Amino acid sequence: MEKRPTSFYFLAAFFALFVLFLYGPTVTIGILSFQGREGGLTFPMNGVSTYWFRDLFQEQAVGDIWGAFRRSLVLGLMVMVTTVVVSVMAGLAFRKNFKGSGILFYAAITSLVIPSILISLGVGLIFNQLGLKVHWATSGFGSQLTWTLPFGLLIMFAVFNRFDKSYEEAARDQGATAWQTIRFVVLPIIAPSLIGVALFGFTLSYDEFARTLLTAGSYNTLPLEVFGMTTNVTTPVIYALGTLTTAFSLLIIIAFLLSVWVMNRRRARLGSDAGKAL
Questions:
Q1: How many domains does the chain have?
Q2: Is the dihedral of CA 15, 16, 18, 23 positive or negative?
Q3: Could you tell me which residue ranges the ABC transmembrane type-1 domain spans (predicted)?
Q4: Residues 122 and 215 grouped into a single domain
Q5: pLDDT tens string 10-29
Q6: Same-domain pairing of 122 and 217
Q7: Cα distances (Å, whole numbers) of residue 164 to 77, 100, 181
Q8: Mean pLDDT, to the nearest integer, of 34-59?
Q9: pLDDT tens for residues 127-179?
């Protein structure tokens, strides 16, 4: 058996430390959320129970946790749908060169390099100057799109850059209209990528803090609510909330991944059936 070089063990140890650094805080919060009734915010744990999860579902005197969760969920869905629709439309448009396309492209992705808090401040000021109400569903929605849309656009540009146009040509040869070609040919082929864009849009919106800080108005989203709780909550109930929100995020990711897996299995089965038919 070939002896592994010393560098292998060094890299393995470095990777293990990296994983611990990456997921250690989340695991720690998950463990501390199962403290007993008299437990505190630090180790050692004082008993083991699910008391703080039950307490989380009671009426809280520290804020509007479930209202903030509903707002983040609705906002995430709004951002997700808008990101998918705009990204697909932009991807289709940028398949052909047009005057000003370069300027438009760089203008769309510039928000990725601008500090998030400045985006939040700018959007909030614009709404104030226009006499519009600063609200999570309007100004908050707009500020979050400056974060999710560039990612969606970059994904769609990469997808359409590798898209085989012969499929569209074959559909048109069969008499399909432009809309039918997009609906029955293009969209089914790029469906896994659309799920990826949707996942980006929802997850980036769901936990966005900086771009929502000055644009949410009087009603907090969940990240803002959790941040507020860190200043006045001294019980593990905040850890229970963090554990549940993390679990919810993981369930969303798993659901999207399962959708892609089912879609790929279905596509492979259809391809196999078509091959047998030929």
A1: 2
A2: positive
A3: 69-262
A4: yes
A5: 888 999 999 999 889 889 99
A6: yes
A7: 31, 25, 13
A8: 83
A9: 999 999 999 999 999 999 999 999 999 999 999 988 888 889 988 888 889 89
In one-letter notation, the amino acid at residue 153 is: L
Helix (H, G, I), strand (E, B) or coil at 216: coil
* Tokens (6 digits) for 221: 């989203």
pTM of the model: 0.84
Which residues sit opposite 48 in a β-bridge? 35
Answer yes or no: is 181 within a domain. no
Together in a domain, 250 and 223: no
**Which residue is it, tokens 């999710």?**
148
Burial environment of residue 25 by CB neighbours within 10 A (0 to 12, 13 to 18, 19 or more): exposed
Per this entry, what is the length of the chain? Answer: 278
Secondary structure letter of residue 131 according to DSSP: T
Dihedral, CA atoms, 170, 171, 174, 177, nearest 10 degrees? -140
Task: Map tokens 């569209």 to a residue.
Answer: 168
Q: Which structural domain range is residue 208 located in?
A: 63-164+194-232
